[in-house]
Amino acid sequence: MKKGLKAICFIANDFEDLELWYPVLRLRETGVTVHLVGEKAGEKYIGKYGVPATSDYAFGSIAVEDYDALLVPGGWAPDKLRRFPEVLAIVRSMNRQNKPIGQICHAGWVLISANILDGKNVTSTPGIKDDMENAGAKWLDQPVVVDGNIVSSRRPQDLPEYMEAFLSLLEKCYPNA
């Protein structure tokens, strides 16, 4: 159980439903408090397949130092998320503190825009392979890739491996939680 740990999960319209809910629910099952953080607090966002989710907080209203991990779901939401300076600042801060960052599918766009992928081994949907490589990352066609504090995955079918790796990294980073 990971009681006491807190994670941010970014949210914007057109998130990939499974890539948001599967990781959020898995973390909550282990006792991690997960807050959905979007442009506005209390806002309802709709996933690609119509599943709604309501944000707990706005990007600018959270204290990053209060959180232990970050999840970035895929879908088309990452293209919107990476346009917010607050989102990029959160990603950079989490990365500087070496806190676990999970990204799946198109979520790599957010990490690219935050300029934290140079020299990293990553994966993503093959559709953004060139973007990842142009950001200085080495792209691997594997279900999950862990490089330091970054856990990356390709698509919904890889969610079990993704979350196993993410939970393992949480255990490594916070063994007493």
TrEMBL record:
Superkingdom field: Bacteria
Matches recorded under InterPro entries: C56_PfpI-like, Class_I_gatase-like, DJ-1/PfpI
Domain DJ-1/PfpI: 6-167
Keyword vocabulary terms for this entry: Glutamine amidotransferase
Pfam families in UniProt: DJ-1_PfpI
Family note: Belongs to the peptidase C56 family.
PANTHER family: DJ-1 PROTEIN (PTHR42733), DJ-1_PFPI DOMAIN-CONTAINING PROTEIN (PTHR42733:SF13)
Designated name of the protein: Type 1 glutamine amidotransferase
Organism of derivation: Caproiciproducens galactitolivorans
